[in-house]
Amino acid sequence: MNARAGIEAEWEPAAEKAKERKLWRKIVGQRYLQMMALLGVAWMIVFNYIPMYGVIIAFKEFDIIHSISSAPWVGLDHFKEFLEDDSLGYVIKNTLGMSILKLVIGFPLPILFALLLNEIRSIVFKKWIQTISYLPHFLSWVILGGILATWLADVGIVNKVLMALQLIDQPITYLAEPKYFWSIVVTSDIWKEIGWSAIIYLAAISSVSPELYEAATIDGAGRMQKMWNITLPSIKGTISILFILAVSGILNSNFDQILVLRNSLNETSSNVIDVYVYNVGLAESRYSYAAAVGLIKNVIALALLLGANSITKRLNNTSLF
Amino acid sequence: MYSFKRQSASSAIFEMFNSLLMLIVCFVTLYPIWYVIVNAFNDGADAMRGGIYWWPRQFSLDSFQAVFRSEGIMTAMGVTVAKTLIGTPVHVFFTAMVAYAFSRKELVGRKLYMFIGTVTMFFGGGLIPYYLLIRDLHLLDNFLVYILPAAFSFFDLIIFLSFFREIPPGLEEAAKIDGANDFKIFYKVIIPVSMPVVATIALFHGVYQWNDYFTGMIFINDTNLQPIQTYLYRVVAQSSSNQMLASMPSGMAVTVTSQSLKLATMVVTTAPIVFVYPFLQKYFVKGFMIGSIKE
Amino acid sequence: MSKARRLMTSMVALTVVFTMALSLAGCSGGKSETNGGSTAATSGSTDAKNTSSTGGGEAKPNPDEPGWKSDNAPITFDWYMNFSWFNKKWGGDATAEYVTKKTGVSINFIVPAGNENEKLNTMIASGKLPDFITLGWSEEAVKKMIEGKLVLPLNELADQYDPYFFKVADPAKLGWYTQPDGNIYGYPNASSSPEDYKKYGSNFTSNQTFEVRKDMYEAIGSPDMSTPEGFLNALKLAKEKFPEVNGQPLIPLGLHEFSETGNYSLEGYLQNFLAIPQQKDGKLYDRRLDPEYITWLKTFRKANEMGLLSKDIFIDKRPQMEEKIAQGRYFAMLYQRSDFDAQNMSLYQKDPNSAYMAINGPANSKKDAPTLSGPGISGWTLTLISKDVKDKKRAIEFLTYLISEEGNKDLFLGEKGVTYDNIDGKDQFLPDVVKLLNTDRTAFDQKYGASYTYWMLMDTNMNLQWAPPGVDPQKQMADWTKGKSISMSEFDNLDPPSTSEEGIAGSKNARNWGKLLPKLLLAKSDAEFDEMWNNYVEDRNKNKQDKIDAYRQKAYEENIKKLEALNK
């Protein structure tokens, strides 16, 4: 027994050493690859990890004239304050409500748009549509908010059109009614970003090998069938990745957009986490509080990312990692 | 089994509806832009009365003249053009390079590297430690602050990854047999077949560089290094500065820019980047490179 | 096992990268944390630099001789303006070039094109500020910069380099801004001391006016609007007589924008019109609980019930309001007059009768005259000198120049013969210059740069002697406020710091008020109003209102002490 144990004990380091040597040889063999990867890692260490110690202000009472290290610890006080805030309920409801609507409606539409655009035969027409549809992305929300406020007013163009079509018989001040707020946000977001979001899908579609289409044509497949059976599966990977990222961003809102559209009357349906953090934390220079809420948000976002990742992995074998 | 005729008929109907739909999308997205433009070309005081929907009521170039009259606007435009032209290739090349390395399954430590990257998407130290870092790197009031901290993004890396995965492995193997090293494979083989995603990220990052005012605001004090977005922000800020209502001396009010001037500023500051897209478009419309090179 | 090994190797690789990165970050990378300590170190080194640059000036400076005259070698100061809308650069105009020629000083203005506080707080946290800093006196950053020893005491600078400073500085303003440590760190602009009130008080104006559209008001018979009944009745008459303006519904009453924390028009503004005191027998008085004030809030509620409040006023932000003012869509407004100067001017130019004019607004039941917010000793902004300033001597000398009568005149009128001259025995702008001033302010700023283009240290009282006469429609409004404007300095800066216990509770109460206020106006009945009101007061009291009040009372008493010292 003892002898065997001794042999094993001697044997194992040797095997380990051999493995180690093999690994080193492997690393040396892929030195170019390692170098390329480590440059990226180095960048992340410098620009992301070195300043990351700032996270600890979430557990401290940080004041700009004292350094982070000398700020007093307050433990979980900021987290408690956030979780006990009486507006938390509707703030979360609004955040999730709008994000889920954006996910359910706003996520698939650019895909559909890209697929349909891809079916346009005339190259010139296609190019024009592409260029035009991405233009609204460049309007900044501050200015767009002003335009929307004019259009959605009781005497605005939206009411004029709807009255002319006899869809409504009384002008509605849309921004004054909490019940319209979510739809205004989601619709205007889709409208502004549909062309822009479609770009990445168009890029994915253009990477699909034309041979696949040729083969399908020979098999007698129609356009719809090709779209459904070739194009869509080919861009499945891109869709999954973007979906995973979108899911993890569910607690984020478009701050600029909400800020320009919200007002004293629609407050109950327009207050979202980001606006809340701005008003309670940043506007009052309470960096610690803002950091604590940010930390909660990010932990949840990471969990959502990992969750969505494992689900898509199981469903269609694509994942981030 | 479909008959040929039936298929082409349904195809024609599809084509018609599709084109119609696209025209509607075009109209809906183009109209607001048109609205911005006609209002920018209208006399400012008159535009304030509202109701300009299709055509300027009192055509005037005053707003545009006022924009170009702003001090230092040409320098700022130069800074923005420079940071976009330099920052974009650096970002695309660097991020793509790292992404390519991360995409190779045999990379030792790959899982760890990915983990390191994923964390960066969610956890940051906030503005103040970041500012101290930038200061210690001597990037304050330095043009490189537009380039180096923006040279990489893990988010974009993920997008690159998803495209690199679709590249048939045969391509790399062929190059390897020819004795090329991994870096050479990356820029000689991978980049050329990945033009659609390269163009996409270039566009995303180019637009980011163009629109980013935050870096200039926080890290740059030298007026000659301020980007063009500064101007847009300023005309917009005038209308939202409600601070100090009571203590501002009477008569010393912030003169607020007319809506026309704001719109004209927006047109001037965004038009150049808008026109980039048509040039990148060829990569989206005819990608097909993977297939063609494979032969 | 092998997995762990592989992890180990990559960890090793990582450490290598990490050290690489650290060395890349430079020697200071590790130190970035010890912010407090390094601050002291850097200030030491700049001290050394400063003395060397001003070295040689060993001879005691002459207190009767302006220091800025002694040296006009070119120097450029970085000057931080905490106002994102400030868009002038130094130079390119007659005034700045004249000043540079005279003093040798050029300025590189640093203006954040974004959230001002974010920029300023970041700079404060980094421990290094530009040479000069100008910001609103009530900003919390003022306290932070002093507390963090990031700014230099002006009195010490003056003692050491330029005693002439004390000749031109107003002792009252210095006294008001003296900190507990006996030092003065900032000098205000647009500030008016009690002495100034005695001298110029009858000319002092306020921005707070109640305006009506002249033609409409006269068409309904110029009724009295100072009582709740008269007010409601006038709004009603106006709405009946002018249901529409150019095809769009009339908005009977306009107000400032509703914000997260309330509405300017419906708080201090209205309380000033009602002449509600801010203190009684040395104790701060809660104006919000005053019955007169509540009566008027209920009047506004009644107005809404009668359909006289448009929804627009609850949702519009400043750009929309400006658009509607330009269209003349409001009948009456409680709106700061300088905020719609441009719009009113364009209405006036089209038809003087369609412009807005100031009339007597809401008053209390005893018909007391309003006590509007006039200029105060706090002024508008405060200018401070950074501890990292390039050249201490030149900085204090330039500051002295700017607050002196000569400096004020140069910056207000520009260069003699170029922008102004002695006309009819009075120094005033040349006709062309006035014309441009009244027609195109932007062009004026760029060409001449006079008349408050560079307002950092303007003395608004001193400048009265050179100012061109006012013109209608602004003049009518400004004149209306004369004799009704009072100083409220003793109530300045009472709020607790935002990160303190009282500050956190205070801003929460403020946000609750911001949510309550529109609901009060929209309440269906006075009973509903009362119920909401009582709930609010109860919540407020539960949330440390007593502590907040105690803090404010203490700060108020300190202010009083300071003011009394000034009056001696």
UniProtKB/TrEMBL annotation, chain A:
<dbReference type="Pfam" id="PF00528">
    <property type="entry name" value="BPD_transp_1"/>
</dbReference>
<feature type="transmembrane region" description="Helical">
    <location>
        <begin position="32"/>
        <end position="50"/>
    </location>
</feature>
<feature type="domain" description="ABC transmembrane type-1">
    <location>
        <begin position="92"/>
        <end position="308"/>
    </location>
</feature>
<keyword id="KW-0812">Transmembrane</keyword>
<keyword id="KW-0472">Membrane</keyword>
<feature type="transmembrane region" description="Helical">
    <location>
        <begin position="234"/>
        <end position="255"/>
    </location>
</feature>
<protein>
    <submittedName>
        <fullName>Putative aldouronate transport system permease protein</fullName>
    </submittedName>
</protein>
<dbReference type="GO" id="GO:0055085">
    <property type="term" value="P:transmembrane transport"/>
</dbReference>
<dbReference type="GO" id="GO:0005886">
    <property type="term" value="C:plasma membrane"/>
</dbReference>
<dbReference type="InterPro" id="IPR000515">
    <property type="entry name" value="MetI-like"/>
</dbReference>
<feature type="transmembrane region" description="Helical">
    <location>
        <begin position="194"/>
        <end position="213"/>
    </location>
</feature>
<feature type="transmembrane region" description="Helical">
    <location>
        <begin position="138"/>
        <end position="158"/>
    </location>
</feature>
<keyword id="KW-1133">Transmembrane helix</keyword>
<keyword id="KW-0813">Transport</keyword>
<dbReference type="InterPro" id="IPR035906">
    <property type="entry name" value="MetI-like_sf"/>
</dbReference>
TrEMBL record, chain B:
<feature type="transmembrane region" description="Helical">
    <location>
        <begin position="143"/>
        <end position="164"/>
    </location>
</feature>
<dbReference type="GO" id="GO:0005886">
    <property type="term" value="C:plasma membrane"/>
</dbReference>
<protein>
    <submittedName>
        <fullName>Putative aldouronate transport system permease protein</fullName>
    </submittedName>
</protein>
<dbReference type="InterPro" id="IPR035906">
    <property type="entry name" value="MetI-like_sf"/>
</dbReference>
<feature type="transmembrane region" description="Helical">
    <location>
        <begin position="12"/>
        <end position="34"/>
    </location>
</feature>
<keyword id="KW-0472">Membrane</keyword>
<keyword id="KW-1003">Cell membrane</keyword>
<feature type="transmembrane region" description="Helical">
    <location>
        <begin position="73"/>
        <end position="100"/>
    </location>
</feature>
<feature type="transmembrane region" description="Helical">
    <location>
        <begin position="261"/>
        <end position="280"/>
    </location>
</feature>
<keyword id="KW-0812">Transmembrane</keyword>
<comment type="similarity">
    <text>Belongs to the binding-protein-dependent transport system permease family.</text>
</comment>
<keyword id="KW-1133">Transmembrane helix</keyword>
<keyword id="KW-0813">Transport</keyword>
<feature type="transmembrane region" description="Helical">
    <location>
        <begin position="185"/>
        <end position="208"/>
    </location>
</feature>
<feature type="domain" description="ABC transmembrane type-1">
    <location>
        <begin position="77"/>
        <end position="269"/>
    </location>
</feature>
UniProtKB/TrEMBL annotation, chain C:
<protein>
    <submittedName>
        <fullName>Putative aldouronate transport system substrate-binding protein</fullName>
    </submittedName>
</protein>
<feature type="signal peptide">
    <location>
        <begin position="1"/>
        <end position="25"/>
    </location>
</feature>
<dbReference type="InterPro" id="IPR050490">
    <property type="entry name" value="Bact_solute-bd_prot1"/>
</dbReference>
<feature type="compositionally biased region" description="Polar residues">
    <location>
        <begin position="31"/>
        <end position="53"/>
    </location>
</feature>
<keyword id="KW-0732">Signal</keyword>
<feature type="region of interest" description="Disordered">
    <location>
        <begin position="29"/>
        <end position="68"/>
    </location>
</feature>
